[in-house]
Amino acid sequence: MSEKQTLHIALPGAAGKMGQMIASLVAEARDIDILAASEHPQSRAIGNTIGAATISADEKILGIGSGGVIIDFTRPEATMKHIEIAVASGTAMVVGTTGLSTEQEEQLEKAARQIPIVYCANTSVGVTLLGQIVEQVARQLDADWDIEIVETHHNQKVDAPSGTALALGKAAAKGRQIDLDTQKESGRDGITGARKSGAIGFAALRGGDVAGEHTVTFFGQQERIEITHRASSRIIFARGALTAARFATTQKPGLYSMDDVLGA
């Protein structure tokens, strides 16, 4: 491929699990390169090379400009800083960071008026399709069918329910034409009373090194429908992130999802 077709990426959190996964895929590709990489100032990885880049504590290097894309799987507070850098430099973004607050999501939406941003809780193609199926099933079943979402992740995950579980809940709520914020039930403990009709329930399991498992169950009378996605490796998220990155570099400013990426 020509130089014009090469995907140039900037990688914050380069020494993290997702950063390393993305770097491993870049190393196997001829048409992708890492132009900039960063880590927090206390990281032992500062000064190491990753792809063609040297890992730096200076986050400003992430602003590689038009035609490039920042792939961000860090933490909410760091992501907000990276968004500012992206806007200032005109760099597209893929944001896979979970746990963003409503206020932070509003900042992201504002930034998307100036640069293309793909924002998704999960970059897996399979999970994206799962969300589409959940919305369709929820649309076709009435409120007498109870919806419960169970997610399992490794013991180092810091947020619950997972961003993917919440995205699946939003898909179910969209199918039912209801507001997830008012229908969400999670963290049940003690005497909670009967299950509220029409609620969408969440349960989170944490243990071992599980990359990610999500099951959406529709409970009817004398029958139930279970839809499950299991990730055996985080490499699927890295692969999807690179697909999203390539999409982002070809788009006008706006806020996009993995549905948009797969539909392109």
CATH topology value of the largest domain: Rossmann fold
Sum up the overall morphology in one term.
Answer: elongated
Structural class: alpha/beta
Give average pLDDT, whole number. 94
Which percent band covers the strand fraction?
25-35%
**What is the β-strand count?**
13
**CATH C-level label of the largest domain:** Alpha Beta
Tally the helices: what do you get?
A: 8
What is the CA-based Rg, rounded? Answer: 19 Å
**Level-2 CATH architecture of the largest domain:** 3-Layer(aba) Sandwich
- How are the strands ordered across the major sheet? 3-4-2-1-5-6-7-13
Q: So what's the oligomer here?
A: single chain
CATH homologous group name of the largest domain: NAD(P)-binding Rossmann-like Domain
Order of SSEs = EHEEEEHEHEHEHHEEEEHEH
The tally of structural domains comes to: 2
What is the first-to-last residue Cα distance?
Answer: 21 Å
Q: Which ranges are low-confidence, i.e. pLDDT below 50, for 5 or more consecutive residues? A: none
